[in-house]
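Hi all, long-time lurker, first post. I run a small reading group and we've been trying to get comfortable going from sequence to structure in the token notation. Rather than ask abstract questions, I figured I'd post a concrete chain and ask someone more experienced to write out its structure so we can walk through it together at our next meeting. Sequence below, copied exactly:
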Amino acid sequence: MIKPTAVKNTNSSLTSILNDLNLLVVLPLLLSCLTGAAFAQETPRSLAEMDRRFSEIRHLDLKYAPGKTPTREEWTARSVKLREQILAASGLLPMPPKGPLNAQIFARLDRGSYTIEKVYFESLPGFHVTGNLYRPKEPKGKVPAVLCPHGHWNYGRLENSHLNSTSGRAANFAMQGYVAFTYDMVGYGDIGPISHRFSYGHREGNDRESLWSVNLLGLQLWNSMRAIDLLQSLPEVDGEQISVTGESGGGTQTFLITAVDDRIKATGPVNMISYVMQGGSLCENAPNLRIDTENVEIGALAAPRPMIMVSATGDWTVNTWLEEYPTIRSYYRLFNADERLTTIQINAPHNYNKDSREAVYTWFAKWFLGRQDLTTLNERNWGVLTTTDQLVFYGRTRPTGELDEAGLIRQMIESHQRELKQAFDAGLEKYRAVFGSTYRQSILATYPNGKELKMTEMETVQPVFKGTTGTTRGIALSRPHVGDIVRAYQTTPTRAANGSAVTLIIDPLPAALRLDPETVQMRDSLVKDGRNVVVVKVFPGERQIPVDYKFFTTYNRTDAALRVQDILTALAWTKSQFPESPVDLVGNGEAGLWVLLARGLAPEVDRAIVDVAGFSNGSDDDFVARLPIPGLRRAGDFTTAVSLAGPTRLLIHQTGNRFSASGLQQVYQAAGKPSNLTVETGRVSVADRLIWLKR
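-- Answer (accepted) --
Happy to help. Here is the structure in token form:
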């Protein structure tokens, strides 16, 4: 759970958590009665302080720093994952089906050396993108085209001031020989029924739309893709010579569309790529977008395509010459493409002013117009364009059947549901291929190399039993260069049974030291039978987030996702310690849900017992309340997890009348192993679970 707080100092809020944890240490005898073990010498305070996930809360105004530049081979692999991450966060992995644009182009005005027309098209059924086409008066053969997304100016694409003129930019491109398209951000200009607060819930926390990867950033990125489709449909446009340039929020759109759409051949992000500010608008943030990354690395995905980085002395790009540009240049050097990257800084506040525009004209002309002279390509007077010249629906009836925000969200979710069903109906192999990446990008957890994990023994832990059945040691596991801590207790039987499985039990209680009674009962019985048992305490959560940290899930994994990662980490370590033994995985109580998700990202486990604790997998509300992982529903949640895990033995219980196992049963049926899945509506007793494990 994420708890907002007004406390600015995260260390002080961490201290309050640690003090609460320390209360448990002074009650070892009581804990012994509760858990069957007294882990009297463990030091939870120091362990929690070691776990960076409590103290390192990332946000849009955090000062990021460049890492080590990868090799070309490393970057090639990394770039694939980054593009998938951007697309998944945007709800575009897999790519939704493209319907007809039904483009309407009308009201052509002859401006002497260029023309301007009004345009609208359907990027989604019932949702229209609006803008203006600027064309050269007499194009000679096929000509290049340029997308012109705008920033958060008061008048959007209609802005015409000394700091920015979107129409002036487009008109000059047209006079130079390009087809230019200026289009509205959602909620600006002619967009109409949909506001710039579309699907705003993730700004403050978790919401239903986040589960389905429905957000404003994704909608705008999709609009840009469909705008490219529009440009490529025009007979005079050379579809292999399309560029993009925009400022501020339009700069974010510029480097994002460049990152994920190879049809963009050159790019000009203006006043945006920065280590110190990642973008504060809804249209610049989406859940999971910047986890383990930031704008400079995303901007580097443009390499080796030509790019000009325009910065200003009066905003967050003031240090571009010294920091962001050198970093991105190091990525261009991987492709021997230094000459394809340039930068310029304008002495001005946040802008896309005449000097900035002329720098972009000059750079683009080198790559699209064959102009080798890099002296400034001066801007020409484009005349006066009135708002009535540009507004698409001025004096015109809006299209029938337009959706409002609720209707558009509903349609987008229903479309994602159809995509899941169609992929599933196409067969298990197709389903895995289509939604496997989506699932992995939703959880953003990895199965580590168990031999590379750092293992630290905790202080002496008292024996589990009064007799001589077995002994327990406390361990803390950490992944290299991550700084996370997974607390576990390994119990070794006095007399180990030959060839027996190792059982990994995920305890549902995140509080330090205390174990769930069912965990204790299962552990005790298994150890008496000569089995090795590892009990895992996953991430406890309860991070304290300052109230002014918006878009938490854009930059940080949720507690539920971190718990899935901890299970994978513990499983990898267990397999490395017992390479010849099968490993069983047990999730009691709420931990059963985490286990079911983790199982889809791990090598095959021999058997798994999952308590779904009456979870309703058909209810978005249950996911928001109990399993708030962005994109999880879009990725197919438990059905996809089970399809990726392989049809090994699986017992699911406490489904009640809320958890539908039909999708899981179909997966096992399709894999030819229906008998390997056992589903019980009620709670299976600990004794019967043990019998099932020991068969």
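A couple of things your group might point at:
The chain has a mean pLDDT of 91.
The radius of gyration is 28 Å.
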